[in-house]
Amino acid sequence: MTLREPEAGGPAAWKYQSALPDVIWPAIPSGDGATSLGILLQLESTQWLSPDRLLEFQMSQLEPLLRHAFSSVPHYRQAWSGLYDPKAPLTRERFSSLPHLTRRELQENFDALKSERIPPAHGSVAEARSSGSTGSPVRVLKTRVTQLMWNAFTLRDHLWHRRDLRGKLAAIRHGVPTGEFAGWGAATHGVIATGPSVVLGVREDIDAQLRWLQEQRPEYLLTYPSNLAELVRRSQELGVRFAELREARTLGEVLPEEVRQLCRTVWGLPVADMYSAEETGYIALQCPQHEHYHAQSEGAFVEILDEQGRACSPGEIGRVVVTTLHNFATPLVRYEL
To answer: Which of 27, 185, 223, 287 is deepest in the core (most CB within 10 A)?
Structure first.
């Protein structure tokens, strides 16, 4: 049998980290790292399920979530009065009868939307705030469970796009500490050895950002679509190229097709986009083979609804309504982004 060298990108080249200094291979990850990998293993299976089977699993997770929300969250006890019976089997129709939670309601009723009995088994609780990029920041509570799910979906994104985690990641964004860091963040920390990461504030002017990228020479760039467009246009004007860059990643805004095309034409790079929100976690990730998106059904129940509140048909544009499946601290049920 002839063994092949691992590919430059993808899990075959990942170097797993062991929590035990004298057990190098196979690595024994830390508790949270092992949990994230365990979730990722399940995601590798569930991503192939049919829509009907995915819906079955989602409804099975929604049942305990809704019972918990109704019994322990003041807002839902009042809003669902006469609409929700925790003893009745949950169906798609019953779920669809529940009212939407608006962004304004979340902003104005933070305390009333907190659970009075967060399950102790869900671990430590912390407050998270959105960046306020829309001008309307929101607050939610999150638990260790929601962080573990975030980590697993991040690993899925790396896996799908076969990133070489040994490379250097540069991020230009707001709301996070700037500087140089030893790894790529919480999802890989203590699980997979990575190259370094560097972070710059997005408020720096475009020329300063370009100079910084020239100095840092990263393999991967993470920023907002609008900022990426400005970087590519300005680099074209100045004749600046980044030979080491392998992929541009975007988040936080709608990614127009013209920005994808611009990046391909000028930099010769693909763009991998993600759709997430601070309060909900991952909503959809770009397909590794096409430029459309896959809803992250294992973490969120995503509805696209028309003006009458009915599910949109393929090709129709509608409102995004998200239910987070694992946040028992601030449950977001039919939250209208």
So the answer is: 223
Can you read off the two tokens belonging to residue 218? 């990263």
Which H or E element spans position 320? strand 319-324
In degrees rounded to 5, what are phi and psi of residue 153?
-70, -30
Contact between residue 203 and residue 224 where contact means Cβ atoms under 8 Å apart: no
Residue entry with tokens 């260790």: 144
Phi then psi dihedrals of residue 128, to 5 deg? -120, 140
Asked whether the beta carbons of 301 and 58 are under 8 A apart, the reply is yes
Mean pLDDT of 14-28: 93
Sign of CA dihedral 241, 242, 248, 253: negative
Q: What's this model's pTM, rounded to 2 decimal places?
A: 0.94
Distance of alpha carbon 114 from alpha carbon 105, whole angstroms: 13
Distance CA 236, CA 200 (A): 21
End-to-end C-alpha distance for the chain, whole angstroms: 53
Predicted pLDDT at 137: 84
Give the tens place of pLDDT for each residue, 243-254. Answer: 999 999 999 999
